[in-house]
From TrEMBL:
It comes from the Bacteria. Pfam families: FAD_binding_4. Transmembrane segments: none annotated. PROSITE patterns: FAD_PCMH. One of its GO terms (biological process) is lactate catabolic process. It comes from Prochlorococcus marinus str. MIT 9201. This is FAD/FMN-containing dehydrogenase. GO terms for molecular function: D-lactate dehydrogenase (cytochrome) activity; D-lactate dehydrogenase (NAD+) activity; FAD binding. Residues 46-220 form the FAD-binding PCMH-type domain.
């Protein structure tokens, strides 16, 4: 449609500061993300390839691309680094993929509030480096922080390292504002405050082209990583809960079941084979955590300052755990859920009894609206969609809230309901429905949203 129509292609080529990528191998590569963790998504998405990939160098180029796409009704799918797991950055209906790599600058830092204004395509590892000189760091990081962009994290991610203290990206106070280009006849750059930004937060780029973000940051601390060995799995939960309710600073708290530890990279699994609790805290906090370990009669090993480690625990948590499992055996897939408060073990024990080692447990400590909770990213041996559904039903029946990573839409992978404000924003800023079409379920029933 775009690449085989010379008139349209010519129009894109006339745009100043716009890199155009046309080679078939690049189009294929830049139309994919990490959806292959889900056999269901793999079947649906393997054939989806963009007609054209563009990389704008400035706001004018973004607006020009939007204008051409509006004129010819061409879909645009935004792309950061393409590390999403839900096929968020995959163009379902071909068209243009717009990669934001050149939008990579830290624009402003406010020392009074600690707010940073940064362009959407900035890689989080680079952003954290830039923040160092202000004595600050990002509050929340996905385990892909070395390669993933901040715009992709806000538009497609949820939380990760840091969620133990700061909750999730959509919690009030994390995203302070943003700037986005609209997708209409005369695209414009708009500024959104915290409240106006909410509908664009975790909307998979379906209702605006985010060019920069204003985020709250944290004071930079030296985080130390500690690994605790625990023979009884049930005790790991009790210990982690004791740690999360202690008066210590925490960046991370995770539990890996022994069978998962056994599949992790050699540097990690060789230390000793048992269930493990992984913690990141300040050096002061570590002293308290070591005392807790002593009381529970479990061994702990201080690995050192995370940033200085050749291999740190950040590489074996969140979805990196699944990554390592899959590098051993591609039949592993996973689930994401918030476990029922204070009933975590009832659920885990039920599933262990019913499903045995087909489901292995990986837990992450998070803060949910200020309350310490446990999330789980169990890995599962793939045995077809029926079994997957039965496992999810078991979890739901026992009180878990599932964030299904085997679905394509914002709603099905998240809260399970249509967010009227996200749809209203799409009606306003993308009236033809050209931004990442097929990813916002609410768009199909937009007539219900009276604006
Ligand atoms: C091994 C592994 C571990 C992971 N761990 C975590 C984790 O701990 N926490 C977590 O939340 N996620 C995690 N993820 C998912 C993903 O890595 C993160 O969400 C990451 O932040 C996405 O950033 P990205 O630049 O790759 O975005 P992309 O995948 O390129 O895009 C994500 C979504 O954002 C949209 N988008 C991108 N840029 C813009 C823009 N400028 N304007 C509007 N929309 C835009 C895209 O269209 C897409 O819908 C993990 C994935 C893998 C493979």
């Amino acid at each position: 449609m775009t690449s085989n129509n010379p008139t349209i292609l010519e129009k894109f080529k006339e745009v100043k500061n716009l890199e155009i990528i046309e080679s078939q191998s690049d189009l294929k590569r830049l139309s994919k993300d990490f959806y292959n963790y889900s056999p269901i998504l793999t079947e649906k998405l393997d054939g989806c390839i963009a007609d054209l990939v563009v990389r704008p160098g400035d706001h004018n180029a973004v607006k020009k691309v939007a204008e051409i796409c509006w004129e010819f009704s061409i879909p645009i799918t935004l792309r950061g680094s393409g590390t999403g797991n839900y096929g968020q950055a995959v163009p379902l209906f071909k068209g243009v993929v717009m990669q934001m790599s050149y939008f990579n600058k830290l624009e402003e830092f406010d020392p009074d509030t600690g707010f940073v204004k940064v362009q959407a395509g900035c890689v989080m590892g680079d952003l954290n480096k830039k923040l160092e000189k202000y004595g600050r760091e990002l509050r929340l990081l996905p385990s892909t922080w070395k390669t993933a962009t901040i715009g992709g994290f806000i538009a497609g991610g949820s939380g990760g390292i840091g969620s133990i203290k700061w909750g999730f990206l959509r919690d009030p106070g994390n995203l302070i504002g943003l700037e986005a280009v609209t997708m209409n006849e005369k695209p414009v750059l708009l500024k959104f405050d915290a409240e106006e930004s909410e509908p664009l937060n975790h909307a998979y780029g379906t209702n605006g082209i985010i060019t920069s973000l204003i985020l709250a940051t944290d004071i930079k601390r030296k985080w130390y990583s500690l690994v605790i060995d625990c023979i009884e799995f049930e005790k790991t939960i009790e210990i982690l809960k004791t740690i999360t309710s202690a008066a210590v600073d925490l960046k991370l708290g995770a539990i890996l079941e022994e069978e998962i530890v056994d599949q992790m990279p050699t540097w990690f699994r060789n230390k000793s084979l048992s269930n493990k609790i992984l913690v990141q805290s300040t050096l002061g906090g570590i002293k308290t955590i070591e005392l807790i370990c002593k009381k529970f009669k479990v061994e702990s090993t201080l690995l050192g300052e995370e940033e200085k480690l050749v291999n740190g625990v950040s590489e074996v948590v969140w979805n990196h755990t699944t990554l390592h499992m899959r590098s051993r055996d591609k039949n592993w897939t996973y689930l994401q859920m918030l476990l029922p408060q204070n009933n975590e073990l009832k659920l885990i024990n039920f599933l262990r009894k019913k499903w045995g080692k087909k489901v292995l447990w990986h837990l992450e400590a998070v803060s949910q609206q200020g309350t310490p909770r446990l999330a789980a990213l169990p890995v599962l041996k793939w045995n077809g969609p029926e079994e997957l559904n039965e496992i999810m039903e078991d979890c739901k029946n026992l009180g878990a809230f599932i964030f299904n990573p085997h679905v394509l839409t914002v709603e099905s992978g998240g809260l399970g309901v249509v967010d009227a404000d996200q749809v209203k924003a799409k009606i306003k800023f993308d009236p033809k429905g050209l931004l990442n079409p097929g990813k916002l379920e609410g768009w199909a029933i937009k007539e219900q949203f009276n604006i």
